[in-house]
């Protein structure tokens, strides 16, 4: 079969690629230097100072980068942000603009040859633009015309289920609530979101076991923990302020166990640039033990931990297991114990690539700890066995009674700053009946009950012609989704694609017959919708909800807020249907918050609660009262078989991950400082043993070819091999460049998340 992938363009500057030494610490002075240099270049000196001083402050705006929580108001610094938060602010606050002259000068065909980095670097979008059927260039149009165009297309569909309402995790709670209401009042649950590609496995694994798909810890728990386990996460790059929390925990005596195929700098040592110690380079050592695990070996590892904990309990009854917790609060312990006692150690060694003694030493850390926090991110969720792995985390936590007590708990670390909030607000293709009932009662209609499409199913529906309109509330669906070739071909079959965006990206260029760009305000900007100063609200990774208000002048006078745009589309599409007061919503976001308060569980009196200094924390029954809202009203022990997934001779397992200089498909620059990469992104990190065995050398250029059961060959060409410390058989390269290699149907079991961390590839000499 021929290659299925269109190759996204490659940056000409990549020829300057340099490979240096991998770092063994994160942050320090370079972090300050790099972030300030980028901020000043993009925003100028005065705006840099103004913006950064409001970042994550109680009366300022919430960092739009990751979902890491803020310390309580009294513990906040004047500079409560990290290098990557500063980069995100600078990127949004840039002085560059993409206006109608820009689009006149650049045809869509021309823009398709540019990289994602180049596209976003051109600056902020300034006014609504349309690409008409057969058109070569985007042209300006009025907001009124843009809304009627969307309304006409949506109302002309044969079924509401032919429309897809995608959300990226930056949308505020108010925008998200209005958006899901629009989709459901229109008649569909097709609400795919970036969560489908991200922490869906977490949401499912936790909902099925503890009854709620969210983490059970607060920042305080992290500070008080005796042991913090960090699996499948690179906090130094992706959640940099987590390192401050780890530093506090270490000072309080915590131990850290890190589990990762790569020895990420931010897991090893933190030089906190806000302390003299950090600036002098003394810093804080982080991981006390590091397990360099093979890809997707975590399920087997945690079953081995389970076994070793059971055996330790046998030796010293009552010292490891929390019998009281198990008997009062859990279900299924006996089956789990039986499954674990039969564990095949050889399978564990094969799956993890670790020595039994290393696993034992790590298990000793769990055995010794009375307060363990278990953290994870994409290295766990984007695997075929992700849901089973997360359930195994839960098993071990339940055995030791680590849920609902201070200093302990489960800590999935979310990605996008408001991805968790969007879910709370009903951005979910599978929202439960209880939510739909409340929504229907509040607005006087019967919401559709049939589950909608998730991200993968959305591509399939476009591909198969059963979906025709795609609306993106933020994000860059084309580049963030798996199987770029298939996804792009599917998007081109749409009749209309609409992107509500701040910056230009590939999703504006790979479009349906008609395409719209609707430019929106960012978090940093003053929102004067309805003639008054509006604020929005967001929820972080630890369920804390608070408000966010930007102060900067908008990038252009024509920008509209996300709320205003959603309400505009709703009015043009639904008119007076169900008498939903869209105009009032856009006039005063408190009108939306009032409805949120009546529909969303835990948000009663929402409009009042978010006025509290620092906001409020949403209820979480397992954390708060050790009640588990499952069918059994107990936490569930589950059993899963361990599969050792082997790959054919000469093949390798590729994981796709983030460099230090990107936020998802937003590429700030071409460096990955901690991994020693400069001026380029087309690299593959590979072990010395694999290089030797396959007959390649560091510095060789190869094409990556992925192999999947459908027999289709997917390629991504011209990557430089970089010898690196990674387990034999496991290689790594950046996303989104490697998305052409991830087969659409390669998904995590149950959650449907693309297996971005598990792609079988071979190298071909370029
Ligand atoms: N600066 C910055 N911040 C971000 C983002 C960004 O792009 N840039 N993205 C945001 C988003 S949306 C998200 S979801 C998060 C992502 O945050 P992370 O999950 O930290 O992101 P990745 O770069 O995908 O890193 C995955 C990590 O998992 C490890 N890993 C891969 N496979 C396995 C495995 O099988 N087992 C184990 N134990 N580890 C494995 C990898 O080596 C890597 O360290 O970050 C958020 N924050
Ligand atoms: N191979 C591979 N693929 C992956 C992953 C991986 O690890 N490997 N990770 C997955 C994960 S975890 C995620 S979360 C997804 C991310 O998928 P998305 O959320 O779809 O992608 P982003 O790159 O975050 O979106 C960037 C765009 O968002 C727009 N934007 C920025 N700020 C705002 C705003 O305030 N409002 C609006 N309306 N628009 C804004 C800008 O136009 C920008 O170009 O990618 C997934 N894809
Ligand atoms: S840790 Fe995340 S939320 Fe905090 S400042 Fe850094 S990027 Fe922003
Ligand atoms: Mo994510």
Describe the structure.
With 766 residues, this protein is an alpha/beta fold. The protein folds into three domains: 137 residues, Barwin-like endoglucanases (Beta Barrel); 289 residues, Rossmann fold, CATH 3.40.50.740; 214 residues, Dimethylsulfoxide Reductase, domain 2 (3-Layer(aba) Sandwich). Helices cover 36% and strands 16% of the residues. Strands 6-5-18-17-16-7 form a six-stranded mixed beta sheet, with helices on both faces. The longest helix is centred in the middle third of the chain and has 18 residues.
Q: Span from first to last CA?
A: 20 Å
Structural domain tally: 3
What Rg is obtained from the alpha carbons, in whole angstroms? 25 Å
CATH fold label of the largest domain: Rossmann fold
Alpha plus pi helix count: 32
Structural class: alpha/beta
> Helix amount, in percent?
25-40%
The average pLDDT score comes to: 95
Beta-strand share of residues: 15-25%
Which strand order do you get reading across the main beta sheet?
6-5-18-17-16-7
Short description:
This protein has 32 helices and 31 strands. By secondary structure, it is α/β, with parallel strands linked by helices.
Features of this protein?
alpha/beta, disordered N terminus, 32 helices, binds ligand MGD, six-stranded mixed β-barrel, 3 domains, Rossmann fold, binds iron/sulfur cluster, binds molybdenum atom, Barwin-like endoglucanases, 766 residues, 16% strand, six-stranded mixed β-sheet, Dimethylsulfoxide Reductase, domain 2, single chain
């Amino acid at each position: 079969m021929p290659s299925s992938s269109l190759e996204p363009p490659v940056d000409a500057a990549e020829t300057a690629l340099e490979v240096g030494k991998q770092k063994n610490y994160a942050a320090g002075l370079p972090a300050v230097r790099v972030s300030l240099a980028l901020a000043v270049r993009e925003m100028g000196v005065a705006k840099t100072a103004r913006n950064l001083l409001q970042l994550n402050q109680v009366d300022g705006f919430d960092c739009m980068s990751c979902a890491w929580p803020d310390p309580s108001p009294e513990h906040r610094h004047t500079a409560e942000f990290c290098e990557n938060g500063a980069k995100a602010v600078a990127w949004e606050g840039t002085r560059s603009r993409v206006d109608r002259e820009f689009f006149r000068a650049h045809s869509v065909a021309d823009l398709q040859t540019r990289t994602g980095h180049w596209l976003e670097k051109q600056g902020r979008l300034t006014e609504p633009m349309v690409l008409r059927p057969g058109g070569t260039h985007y042209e300006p149009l009025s907001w009124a015309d843009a809304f009627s165009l969307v309304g006409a297309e949506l109302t002309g569909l044969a079924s509401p289920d032919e429309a897809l309402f995608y959300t990226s995790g930056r949308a505020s709670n108010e925008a998200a609530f209005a958006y899901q209401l629009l989709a459901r009042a229109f008649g569909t649950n097709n609400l795919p979101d970036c969560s489908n590609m991200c922490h869906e496995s977490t949401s499912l694994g936790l909902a099925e076991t503890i009854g709620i798909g969210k983490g059970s810890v607060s920042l305080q728990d992290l500070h008080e923990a005796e042991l913090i386990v960090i699996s499948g996460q690179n906090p130094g790059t992706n959640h940099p302020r987590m390192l401050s929390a780890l530093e506090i925990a270490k000072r309080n005596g915590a131990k850290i166990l890190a589990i990762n195929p790569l020895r990420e700098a931010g897991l090893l040592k933190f030089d906190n640039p806000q302390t003299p110690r950090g600036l002098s380079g003394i810093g804080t050592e982080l991981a006390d033990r590091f397990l360099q695990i093979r890809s997707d070996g975590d399920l087997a590892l945690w079953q081995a931990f389970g076994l070793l904990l059971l055996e330790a309990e046998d030796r010293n009854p009552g010292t490891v297991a929390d019998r009281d917790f198990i008997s009062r609060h859990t279900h299924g312990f006996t089956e789990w114990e039986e499954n674990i006692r039969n564990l095949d150690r050889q399978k564990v060694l094969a799956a993890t690539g670790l020595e039994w003694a290393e696993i034992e030493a790590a298990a000793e850390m769990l055995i010794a700890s009375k307060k363990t926090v278990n953290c994870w991110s994409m290295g766990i969720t984007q695997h075929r066995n992700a849901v089973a792995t997360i359930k195994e985390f839960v098993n071990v936590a339940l055995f030791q009674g680590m849920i609902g007590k201070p200093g302990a708990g489960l800590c999935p670390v979310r990605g996008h700053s408001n991805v968790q909030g969007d879910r709370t607000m009903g951005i979910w293709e599978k929202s439960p009946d209880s939510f739909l009932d409340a929504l229907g009662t509040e607005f006087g209609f019967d919401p559709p009950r049939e589950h909608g499409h998730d991200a993968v199913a959305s591509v399939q529906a476009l591909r198969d012609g059963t979906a025709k309109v795609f609306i993106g509330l933020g994000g860059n669906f084309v580049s963030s989704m798996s199987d770029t070739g298939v996804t792009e071909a599917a998007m081109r079959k749409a009749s209309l694609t609409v992107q509500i965006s701040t910056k230009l990206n590939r999703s504006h260029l790979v479009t349906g017959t008609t395409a719209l760009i609707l430019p929106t305000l960012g978090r940093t900007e003053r929102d004067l919708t309805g003639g008054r100063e509006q604020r929005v609200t967001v929820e972080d990774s630890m369920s804390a909800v608070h408000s966010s208000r930007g102060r900067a002048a908008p990038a252009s006078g024509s920008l509209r807020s996300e709320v205003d745009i959603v309400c505009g589309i709703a009015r043009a599409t639904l008119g007076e249907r169900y008498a939903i007061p869209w105009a009032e919503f856009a006039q005063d976001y408190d009108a939306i918050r009032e409805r949120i308060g009546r529909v969303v569980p835990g948000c009663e009196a929402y409009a009042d609660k978010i006025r509290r200094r620092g906001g409020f924390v949403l209820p979480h029954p397992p954390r708060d009262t050790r009640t588990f809202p499952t069918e059994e009203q107990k936490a569930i022990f589950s059993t899963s078989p361990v599969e050792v997934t082997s790959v054919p001779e000469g093949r390798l397992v590729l994981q796709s991950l983030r460099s230090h200089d990107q936020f998802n498909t937003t590429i700030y620059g071409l460096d990955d400082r901690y991994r020693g990469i400069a001026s380029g992104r087309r690299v593959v990190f590979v072990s010395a043993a694999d290089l030797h065995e396959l007959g390649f050398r560091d510095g060789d250029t190869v094409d990556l070819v992925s192999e999947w059961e459908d027999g289709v060959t997917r390629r991504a060409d011209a990557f430089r091999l970089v010898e690196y410390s990674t387990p034999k058989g496991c290689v790594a390269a950046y996303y989104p460049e490697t998305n052409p290699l991830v087969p659409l149907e390669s998904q995590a079991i149950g959650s449907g998340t693309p297996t971005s961390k598990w792609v079988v590839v071979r190298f071909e000499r370029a």
